[in-house]
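Progress against Task 2.4 (sequence-to-structure conversion) is shown through the following example record, which the project officer requested during the mid-term review.
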Amino acid sequence: QVQLVESGGGLVQPGESLRLSCATSGMFFTSNTMSWYRRVPGKQRELVADITSGGVTNYADSVKGRFTISRDNDKNTVSLEMNSLKPEDTGVYFCHTYQWRVGSRYDFWGQGTQVTVSS
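Structure tokens generated for the chain above:
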């Protein structure tokens, strides 16, 4: 059973940094694309960043140059380094992955971790 557990959220001031981590189990981690999504108040859940099994990364325009996604294939974890945080980065951040099984896609989500950026 695939499990994703996020950690590292919290309350910070604008301009500060946070590092989110996602511990995974029950999957062949090295084969999966891993993603971070966030749900911002009043908006739909949006993709923040993802990283393929080969290490290719992709970022939302709003976080380019400030956030860095990385993966540790030895520890089966994916991280999101967030710098120069802004109030509009406030939201619940979710770790995500998916798998194809017999022609069907299955999506897996963590429980989410709250990030609040406020002075």
